[in-house]
Amino acid sequence: MTSEDLSAELKARMLGETQALPTSTLTRMWRTGRSAVGIGSAMLRGRRGEDLDPAAIAGLVTRLGGLKGVAMKAGQILGHVNTSLPAELRDMLSLLQTAAPGTDFAAVEATIRAALGDRAEVLLAGMQRAPIAVASIGQVHRARLPDGRELAVKVRHPGIEAAFAADFRAAGVGKLVAAISGTAAIRDCIEEARDAFTGECDFLAEAAHQRQFAELLRDDPVLVIPEVLPELCAPAVLVTRWTPGRSLDEFLAAGPSQPERDLAGAALFRFWLRSLYRDGLFHADPHPGNFAFLPAGRIAIYDFGCVRRFDPALRRGFARLAAATRDDDEGAYLAAITEIGGHAPKDRSAREHLRGLLRAFFAPLLRPGKRRVAPDAGLDARGALHDKQAILGLQLPARMLFLFRLRFGLYAALARLEAEVDWADLESEWARQA
Questions:
Q1: Of the chain's two ends, which shows fewer C-beta atoms within 10 Å, N or C?
Q2: Which of 79-83, 108-112, 421-425 has the lowest mean pLDDT?
Q3: Partners of 156 in the beta sheet?
Q4: Model confidence band, residue 215 (pLDDT cutoffs 50, 70, 90)
C-alpha cells in the first residue's frame, strides 16, 4: 500500500470515529507526553535513515487528533512547516489539518440546541450527521436550509475550553509551544498561545473576524471569504455559506499551468501579507486546510478563529525591519528591532546571528524579479529560532515570534505551488504603505 493510500485510509478512519474529549490535566499530560516522545522517536529514526512503522505513526496521529487542543495544533503546524521531519511522519501529521476522531452527533445536536434555542430546529432538520472535517476546536457539518441555501456548520467540541485550560496547566505544554513558536522564550510564548488558542473557542468572535475580512476583500478578483449567517451563530456555533473547493493536493494533482500557479501564489501571498501591512490583521493559521481552490481561478479562505491584530506602530516597525533587511542595513534593522519591542544585541556574534535570522525570514524579499519560493525557504531561520541563547538575548515580543514561525507555513504552501512571482516587489509595495 502506498503512503497516499495509507493517509487516505487513516483520514477516512478518523473521520468515521467518535471520541469523547479528555479534559483531565493528568490524562492530557500523559497522552501529550506520549505523543511528544513518539514524534521525537520518529524524528530520530528518520535522521538515522531507519524505516518508520506506519501503524505506530497512525496511532500517534490518531492520539493527537483525539486530544484536540494544543497537542493537535502542534501536530498540524509540525506537519506543515517542519521540513526536517521524515516525509511519512509529515504526511500523516498533515491529516490533522482537517481530520481527527470527531464528537458524537448527539453531543453536536445538544450543543446546537443549547446555543440557538428555537433557531436550532431549522438548522438541524437539514444537517448531515457525519462531519466533513474535524479540527482542534470544532467540527464542520454540511446542512441545507428550507430555502435551498447550502451551509457549513461549525460546532465547538464540548469540553474544549476545559481541555485548553488543562493543557496550559500541564508542565509539558512548554515543549509543544516551543515547537510551534520555535523559541526557548517559553513564558511569554505560552501566554501568547493561551490567548490565541482560547480566543478561537469563541465563534462569535470568529464570525466578526470573517465578516471583517470579507469586507476588506470584497473587490478582490481571486480571494473569496464565505458569507457568515449571523442570525444562526453563537459562541459555540458558526454558520457560513457552503463554499467547497479542491484542496492544495487536488489542485496540484490536476496539473495546473504556470499562470494558474502564479495567480494562486500571488493571491495567497497578498492575503496573508497585505492584510498585515495595510489593515493590521493577520490570519494566523496559514496551513493548506484553510484554503481551497474554486472554479475560475478563485480561492476560498476558511477558519478565522485565530486572527492577530497589530497596531500601526508595530506595523511600521515591521515594515522598516523588512526594508532594512532587504538593504542589509545593520543600523536600520537594529533600530527596527528596538521599535517593535525587542532588544538590539551589542555582541558581534549575536548581531551576525540576528542578520542570518532576518535574511532567512525575509528570503523571498531579498532579490527582485520573478522566482519560485525554495522548498527550504526559511529553513536557516527555523534553525536559528532554536538557538536559545541568541533568541533570549533579542527579547522579541512573543507575538512577533509566532508571526515569524507562522510565516514559514506560508512559505511551505508557496513552495509547493511552484509559483513564479516577484515576491520582493509585492512585499516592498505593501511595506511602504505601512
A1: N
A2: 79-83
A3: 138
A4: very high
Last residue of a domain, one of 179, 201, 229: 179
Residue 95 CA to its chain's centroid (Å): 13
Q: Is residue 304 part of a domain?
A: yes
Between CA 352 and CA 357 the distance in angstroms is 9
Task: For residues 168 and 70, give the distance between their C-alpha atoms in angstroms, rounded to a whole number.
Answer: 8
Nine-digit cell at 169?
496547566
Mean predicted confidence (pLDDT) in 72-77: 79
Predicted TM-score of the model (pTM)? 0.87
Between 8-17, 229-238, 256-265, the lowest mean confidence (pLDDT) is in 8-17
Q: How far is CA 94 from CA 72, 119, 225, 287, 320, in A?
A: 10, 36, 23, 9, 34
**14, 407, 393, 312: CA torsion to nearest 10:** -120
- Helix (H) or strand (E) run with residue 358 in it: helix 348-361
C-alpha span between 10 and 16 (Å, rounded): 10
Domain end marker among 164, 179, 194: 179
320 part of a folded domain: yes
Give the domain range for residue 268. 244-434
Structural domain count, the chain: 2
Give the mean pLDDT of 356-362. 81
Does pLDDT of 166 surpass 80?
Answer: yes
Closest among 106, 107, 10, 20 to 66, alpha carbons compared:
20
Is 218 part of any domain? no
Per-residue model confidence as pLDDT tens digits over 361-381: 788 888 889 999 887 664 544
For 72-126, give the secondary structure using H, E and C.
Answer: HHHHHHHHHHCCCCCHHHHHHHHHHHCCCCECCHHHHHHHHHHHHHHHHHHHHHC
311-325 residue pLDDT tens: 888 889 889 998 999
What SS3 state is found at 37?
Answer: helix
Domain annotation covers residue 351 = yes
